[in-house]
Every structure is written in C-alpha cells, then in structure tokens.
Design a protein that fits this description.
Chain B: It comes from Paenibacillus tritici. Chain B: Keywords: ATP-binding, Nucleotide-binding, Repeat, Transport. Chain B: InterPro entries: AAA+_ATPase (IPR003593), ABC_carbohydrate_import_ATPase (IPR050107), ABC_transporter-like_ATP-bd (IPR003439), ABC_transporter-like_CS (IPR017871), P-loop_NTPase (IPR027417). The complex is a heterodimer of chains A (about 350) and B (about 500). The two termini of chain A are about 25 Å apart. Chain A is mostly helical and about 350 residues long. Chain A has 16 helices and six strands. Chain A has a two-stranded antiparallel ribbon. A two-stranded antiparallel sheet of chain A has the order 3-6. In chain A, helix 4 packs antiparallel against helix 5 and helix 7 crosses helix 11. Chain B has about 500 residues and is of the alpha/beta class. Chain B folds into three domains: about 240 residues, P-loop containing nucleotide triphosphate hydrolases (Rossmann fold, 3-Layer(aba) Sandwich), CATH 3.40.50.300; about 180 residues, P-loop containing nucleotide triphosphate hydrolases (Rossmann fold); about 80 residues, no CATH class. Chain B has 18 helices and 21 strands. A six-stranded mixed beta sheet of chain B has the order 6-9-10-3-11-12, sandwiched between helices. In chain B, strands 17-18-19-15-20-21 form a six-stranded mixed beta sheet, with helices on both faces. In chain B, strands 2-1-4-5 form a four-stranded antiparallel beta sheet, covered by helices on one side. In chain B, strand 1 and strand 2 form a beta hairpin. The longest helix of chain B is centred in the N-terminal third of the chain and has 16 residues. The chains are: A mainly alpha (about 350), B alpha/beta (about 500). The interface between A and B is medium-sized, with 26 and 33 residues.
Chain lengths: ~350, ~500
C-alpha cells in the first residue's frame, strides 16, 4: 500500500467522493450552484448547511470518544438548548432585539455547558461508566426539553434569530462559519496546546496518565463540557433554521449519527488517537447520504434500510481485515489448486 | 534422546513486522518428555516465536511439524487442536469466575445443553489433586487465591485440553522461591508423564535447575541449541548477549569506586504507613544517595514506594522534604517537587501503548509544564532523539508506537520520560524486571552515574545482587515491616539474606 492510501483520511474521502459521483451521475446538475439575491443555492450548499449541526455535535463527540467515553445525551442537549433560546425569545416584547437574542443564545450555551459538566462529573467524579452516565441525561433531557416548551412547539418570529441558522454571510450560509469557528477552536486547543496529547494519553491508559502527572479527571470533565457546548450550539442552529423549538423531535437520534461520523472518520471507540478532520468528513458523508436518499426518491418506508446498508458498506470498506480477506480471495481466484497445495506445504 | 522423533519441530521460521525482521530462519525442536528452555535477551524473538507457534501471529515462511506431520497454524484454535497449550506470563483467566469454571470454560460438561455443575466441580478438583497436587476449594473465585495458585490453575486448564506440548511463558516472574519450587515439582511430574514443556525464562538458575536442553535466540536469529549440562554460565550469557560483555565487567569497577560524598537530607518519611500495605516506618534519603529496598515479593516494597510518590494515601505519618518544607500528597505534587516514579507495572501504569515513543518520552514533562506551555514539535523531536541515543533505545525511531518495542526498550523510554523532568529523587520499582542482561547493566550504570551527579534514588529489585551493586544503603523489609537498615560498609549478601529471612 502506498503511504497515500495509509493516510487516515483516504477511505473516508473515497467514500465521500463515491457518493458525490453517484449523485452527479444520477442528476447532472447536482454540482451546479446558482446565485439569487447574493445567496448561493445548490445541493452542495444545502449539504453543508443542513449538515452543520451534525458536524458540530460530532466534533464534540470525537473528543469524548478519544477518552474512551461516549455521550448519548447530545440529542437531548440539542433539544434543550433550542427550547430555552426559543422560549426566552418568544416571551420577549421585541423578538428582534439584539440584546434579547444575544442573551438567549448565551443562556442556551451556558445551560448546555452545565449539562456537559453534569455528564463529566458523573463520569470522572462518580466513576459511572460513560454509556450509563450519559444515558441518564439522554432520557431526562427529553423530559426537560418538553417541560421548557410545555409540550408544544414554540415558534419565534425573529428574523435576527433566524439568521443564525438560515442567514448568509459573504454569500455562504452563516452556519458554515459557526462550524468553521468551532472546528478552528477545537483544532487549536487540541493540536496547538498539549490538550490533544493529554486526551489521547488518558484515552489509552488513564492510570499511567495519572502517574505521569496528568490531571485525568480534569481532562475527562473538560471533554464532556466541550461536547455539551457543541451540542448546545447545534441546537441553536437547528431551532433557528426552522424558527421553532420542538422538545420532542429536535436532535432525535443525533447521538447515533454523531458516533457514526466519529467512527467513519477513523477514531476508535477504544479511545486514544482522534481525528477531527476525519469526523467532519464522516458527518458530511452521512449528510450527503441523507440528501441522496431524498433526492433519488427512495420510498420513505425503506429510507432507513437503504441508509443502513450504505453505512454497512462504508464500515466494511474501512475495515482492514475485510479488505485483506477480499484481496486474498481476489488473488487466488484463478488458481483453486494452489489453495489445495498450500494446505500441505505450510 | 536424539534417536527419538521430536514431537514438535519448527524449521526455517521467518516473521516480519513492518520495518522489523522479528524472526529469521529460526529452528526449534522439542522431544517428548523434556523441559526445553528458550532464552534470549529482550527483543531476541522469544515472544514472537511463541506467538507464532500458538497462532497469535501467522508465519511468513517456514514449517511446523507435530509428530512428523506438517500442521498449519493460523489461529489459537488451530494450535490447541494440534496439541499445543500455552500459559502466558500474565495469567489469562477470569478472576471473577470460580476455579472450576476457569478450568472448564468453553468446554463445560453438559447434559441436554445444561451445565452439570457438580460434575464440573468434581472433575476440576480431581484434576488439580491428581496432576497438580493442589488441594483447594474449586468453587471459590479465582482471585481469592495467590498468583502462584492461579498460575497452577492456568496450567491445569492448559493440560485439560489434551496437550502434548505445554508452553510456559515466564511463569516464575511473579512467584517467590517456595512457589517456584512447587511449580518445578509439578513440571517434573508432568515431564515424567511424557509431556514436553517449553520454558521461557530470564532466570539462569531456574534454567539450570529444571531444563534438559536450551535454545538460545539473539536478534531474531537462532544462536544454537545446547544441552543444559554442557553449557557453562559464562557461555550461556555470552551467547545471549553477544558482544556486550564489557558492560557487565565495567560495573563492579564503578561500584567499587571511591565513596562519593553525599549531600544533605532530601526527603524523609516519618511513621509512614498504610493499612494492609506496610506498617509505619521511617526512612530518609540524602542528596545523591541510592537507597535500596530489599525484601521478598509481597514484603511491602512497592507499597512503600507508592507512599513516597503519593500514589496511595497514607493512613499514618507523612513524607516531608526538609529543604523546601513541603510534603507529598499526590503524584502531581510529587512531580512538582521533582520526584519521579517508575512503576513495576510497566504496561498498566507506565507506557501509553498507542502513542509514539516521542509522545511517551515528553509526556511527564508536558504534564508538568501544563497544557498551554506546549513543547514544540521540533523540541520534542530533539529531546526524543537525544534520549534515544543516550539510552540506546532500539529501534531508534521516535515515531514508532511504544507497544511495538520490547520490554527493555519500553523501560528505557519510561526512564527517559522521567529523566526529562530532572528529578531530584527517582523511585525505581523493579526497573530491570523482565529485561535482558545488556539493558539491565545499562540501567544499573545509569543509576550509578546519575547518583554521582547528585540525583537520589530509591531502588527496588528482587535481585539482591543488583540492589547490592547500586545502593549506598539498604533498607530491608519483611512481612510488610521495615526490619533493618544496612549501610555500605557491612553490606553482604549473607547479611541481607539473614535479615530478609528473619530469625
């Protein structure tokens, strides 16, 4: 294998390229981008725009997974954050007031930070297994979101708030800039400071890390906090995009898509090495897949089945063992007798 | 013996890993009813050869024959089916299950799909009494027994899989002398029953005590196969380490060098103790002094060291540093006071397996500096390169994953990690366990050199010779209590043995 093929982004990029190519063949104008009123329109832009919340959640999830943890509560945090922001804005006298919107956004982010810290404390302080610890908030969080919205869908009529999730900056969706900013912060924190090394070290071997003087508890707490904040921002994007908050359905099953994106991106659930850019590509693959399925008109009742098969294929392509098995089969396909001989020789 | 057919014969075995030739044209013959030792330095290829034989790794090239018929081994199941059973260094059983369950797991006696518990317990007890001379309650969980008993249970399990060849991978490394004797009695019994045993060990004495023949590997190649009786100790060592004999010869000279002057008191433990670990003791270490801790396994050596580093919370007493006036309550605080600790559990408390050698080396320094004072990539490479050269770490590539290194080289990386933090006190808990003679001598030399430059050491080792060689003063522990302190002038193996044995 060439060093090029060994790069951790090789297979995710291949899959993404294959999906895009399929779309291009299916509908030739898939790549076309047009400009209306200074906004760019097109399927690719849509993928980036609609994929933004998932990318955000997946970035946070990557760091949690790197510490050998998992955060199931992100979907609920998405719902809570959107609900609290929309509730505050909808109760304001002037829903377009900048002060009110900034205050609401800040409140939602702070709340998700607290929720992330709750997860982190359960995991690192109380020593509960991550899957159980975050399951608590996954279940309870849906309830909290519904309490906030009073079981209704809260709608807001605020063009300023809607800008976050559906506005444009320099002809591109504003959400892309939000994602880019969070990704930059994550990359800077993990690759320009030693935090990335500490996270990987704690994920590989927490006991040895503590003995080397790393504050393993703090590292674990901080990744859950970061993950919570990412989910909170994703909740703002989602609710602002549709100008409403739905405690029941906002961010439903996001945790699973996010975990999938992390794994497709090359980060192992066993902790240790993590790849933020891989995760972003993984999330884009999932979003492209969803878009594709809608576009080619798969009947809604089998959408999930089709998605599952594609995901299965993606995972198999990425598995070294599977590729090796296929390659071995391919090599020996013309010489069945050689296999027979091999049994006696070695 | 040579007229007999070998039961197991491996010829022309090759195994490559990316960038490393682990085995080159290696041969191994095992005759029925013999104990055959496999020896060599770390990185000689012993573990690889065993993993190849047990199907953990696949063979690149070569032939394995059992009873004269070629067998192909691609998985541990193939290996078991061929009659090869293995007991690994770290006991690979389930500590929470009962002894009987551990022996029969996967092959429980069943009737109509239900496990017959009575039958299973009965048969387990029978197996242990008959073949192991071990009379224990087989319904208790495995973890309620000592490591030695666990080892015997592992062997019983291996034998129960109708084995013709038994591989024991360093079975004695965590056993005390009595337990070793017990194990050897059983090995002799099994040998008489016609079983062939492949015995991997680092201990020369044990090799001579039990083995008929010995195969020696070096650098992934076969050095030769010898009758144990006809091979002198010096020859054995020479064949194992090759040309590096001068390292061993240099040591006594260094140790016998003039008494170096010791500085002021650096650290003091007063009434330091922990329930179930070690009874309260006093110990002080001066600047530039090497204090040895001697005692049998389980005498409280490690427990004492962990208290010095703050890794465990003491129930009594405290550690103080008179010069700075502070104490030690946690590893972080210890590191802040420039104390370093190399744990005896290299795998679980030392290396970060999936990170590179470079990252492992700078880890403690980076943790000490904090996350925002990042060591630049360039500086990391400089530091790693410097220490790889200084400590002779092999392979000398900083971007290799540490888990791919041999035990001795992993240990050197850990030493580098701590030396980088410039400690004033370096606690070494079994720094040379499970590593080859060459690396051992290098580590001992390093301790002597650094102590002359003013670094203090707390040095723990099961090997008395080693403790004697490096220490200025030796504290002796027995049954979790400090019983004696001996200073250099009246140190002798005799003296210390008496103190350790008590009476």
């Amino acid at each position: 294998m060439s060093p090029f093929m060994k790069h951790h982004l090789f297979w995710p990029l291949c899959v993404l390229a294959a999906l895009l190519l399929f779309n291009l063949c299916y509908s030739p104008d898939f790549f076309s981008i047009t400009i209306h009123d200074g906004h760019l329109y097109g399927s690719l832009i849509d993928i980036l725009n609609f994929g933004a919340p998932l990318i955000l959640v997946a970035i946070g999830m990557t760091l949690v997974v790197a510490t050998k943890g998992i955060d199931l509560s992100v979907g609920s945090i998405v719902a809570i954050s959107g609900a609290i922001a929309c509730l505050r804005i909808s109760s304001g006298a002037d829903q377009n007031s900048m002060g009110l919107i900034l205050g609401s956004v800040l409140l939602a982010v702070l709340l998700s930070l607290v929720l992330g810290a709750w997860n982190g404390l359960l995991v690192s302080g109380a020593g509960i297994q991550p899957i159980i610890a975050t399951l608590i908030l996954m279940v309870a969080g849906r309830g909290i979101a519904q309490l906030i919205t009073g079981g209704q869908i809260i709608t807001v009529t605020s063009s300023n708030y809607a800008y976050i999730g559906s506005g444009s900056l320099a002809a591109l969706p504003f959400s892309i800039f939000v994602v880019a900013l969070v990704l930059m912060i994550a990359l800077l924190l993990t690759r320009r400071t030693a935090l990335g090394l500490f996270i990987e070290s704690v994920g590989c071997n927490p006991a040895a890390s503590s003995m080397s003087g790393i504050r393993a508890h703090w590292v674990i707490l901080s990744v859950y906090v970061f993950c919570g904040v990412c989910a909170g921002i994703a909740g703002l994007l989602l609710s602002s995009n549709v100008s409403s908050a739905d405690g029941n359905n906002a961010g439903l099953w996001y945790e699973l898509d996010a975990i999938l994106a992390v794994v497709i991106g090359g980060t192992s659930l066993n902790g240790g090495r993590f790849y933020l850019t891989g995760t972003v590509i993984g999330a884009l693959i999932i979003q492209t897949l969803t878009t594709t399925i809608y576009m080619i008109g798969v009947p809604p009742e089998i959408t999930l089945v089709v998605k599952a098969f594609v995901v299965l294929a993606v995972c198999l392509i990425q598995s070294d063992a599977f590729r090796a098995a296929i390659a071995a089969r391919w090599k020996s396909r013309h010489y069945p007798a050689e296999k027979e001989m091999g049994r006696h020789v070695s | 013996m040579s007229t007999q057919m070998p039961i197991l014969q491996m010829t022309g075995i090759h195994k490559r890993f990316p960038g490393v030739k682990a085995l080159t044209d290696v041969k191994l013959r095992l005759y029925p009813g013999e104990v055959h030792a496999l020896m060599g330095e770390n990185g000689a290829g012993k573990s690889t050869l065993i993993k190849v034989l047990t199907g953990v790794y696949s063979i690149d090239e070569g032939l394995v024959e059992m009873d004269g018929t070629p067998v192909s081994i691609h998985s541990p199941q193939d290996s078991q089916a061929a009659g090869i059973s293995t007991v690994y260094q770290e006991v690979n059983l389930c500590p929470n299950l009962s002894v009987a369950e551990n022996i029969f797991i996967g092959r429980e006696p069943r009737r109509f799909g239900c496990i017959q518990w009575k039958e299973m317990n009965l048969r387990a007890a029978e197996l242990l009494t008959e073949r192991m001379n071990l009379h224990i309650d087989v319904t208790l969980p495995l973890h309620s027994y000592s490591v030695a008993v666990q080892q015997l249970v592992a062997i019983a399990r291996a034998l129960n899989i109708s084995a013709k060849v038994l591989i024991l991978d360093e079975p004695t490394s965590s056993l005390d002398q009595n337990e070793v004797d017990q194990l050897f009695r059983i090995m002799r019994k099994l040998q008489q029953e016609g079983l062939s045993i492949l015995f991997v060990t680092h201990f020369l004495d044990q090799m001579y005590e039990i083995s008929d023949r010995v195969t020696i590997l070096r650098g992934g190649e076969l050095v030769g196969e010898y009758m144990a009786k006809e091979l002198s100790r010096l020859d054995l060592v020479l064949k194992m380490i090759g040309k590096e004999l001068h390292l061993l010869e240099e040591l006594p000279v260094l140790a016998a060098e003039d008494q170096h002057s010791l500085g002021d008191e650096l650290i003091r433990a007063e009434g330091l103790g922990r329930k179930g670990g070690i009874e309260p003791f006093d110990l002080s270490i001066r600047k530039g002094e090497v204090v040895g801790l001697a005692g049998l396994l389980g005498s409280g050596r490690t427990e004492a060291a962990r208290l010095f580093f703050g890794a465990d919370k003491p129930d009594f007493g405290q550690v103080t540093l008179p010069a700075s006036g502070g104490g030690v309550h946690s590893p972080r605080e210890a590191i802040g006071r420039r104390i370093a600790f190399c744990s005896e559990n290299r795998k679980t408390e030392g290396i970060i397996g999936d990170l590179t050698v470079r990252e492992n080396i700078i880890l403690a320094l980076q943790a000490k500096d904090g996350m925002f004072r990042t060591i630049s990539r360039k500086r990391q490479e400089e530091l790693a390169g410097e220490y790889i050269r200084m400590l002779n770490i092999n392979p000398p590539s900083p971007d290799q994953l540490i888990k791919n290194l041999s035990g001795g080289n992993q240990q050197k990386v850990l030493l580098a990690r701590w030396l980088l933090t410039e400690p004033q006190l370096f606690i070494l808990d079994e720094p040379t366990r499970g590593i080859d003679i060459g690396a051992k001598a290098e580590i001992q030399k390093l301790v002597l050199t650094l102590s002359r430059q003013g670094m203090s050491f707390l040095f723990i080792s099961s090997e008395l010779e080693e403790v004697l060689r490096v220490s200025d003063r030796i504290a002796i522990l027995r049954d979790r209590r400090k019983v004696k302190e001996i200073s250099e002038k009246d140190m002798s193996q005799q003296q210390i043995m008496q103190a350790i044995a008590g009476g």
